[in-house]
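Deliverable D5.2: sample structural annotation.
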Amino acid sequence: MTGGEENSDGGKTDFHVLVVDDSTVVRMVHRMLITSLGLKVQEAKNGKEVVDLHINGAYFDLIFMDMEMPIMNGPTATRELRAMGVKSNIIGVTSCTFESAHKDFIEAGLNHCVSKPLTIAMISSFLPDSNNK
């Protein structure tokens, strides 16, 4: 994905977001919220897809990573991404309310962990100031 393109939207579409969740409904809702902010969104169904995307050269400014997924869960995918040198802002998204689970997920290399569902305000809080207006 290329960067540095001039856009009439103030550069918002140069900000790429990845939504990772095994639930089709959750991915659809999160996609709608993120695109309503004028951002580009890509989706993945599990952690392995995320790792494969990065192995193949994909780059995302922000990744919303579900914790519990089949094939490869969020903590494992986050550890692998960090071991690969991925510097993206990775936000764990979970329906689990146990603080110990959040702590373990954060220790895997997250920048932050939040509870589902995402909201516009929550998403906006992770965007650069120029996208926050």
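Annotation notes: The first strand starts at residue 16 and ends at 20. The helical segments are 24-35, 47-55, 74-83, 99-107, 120-124.
The annotation will be released with the project's public dataset once the embargo ends.
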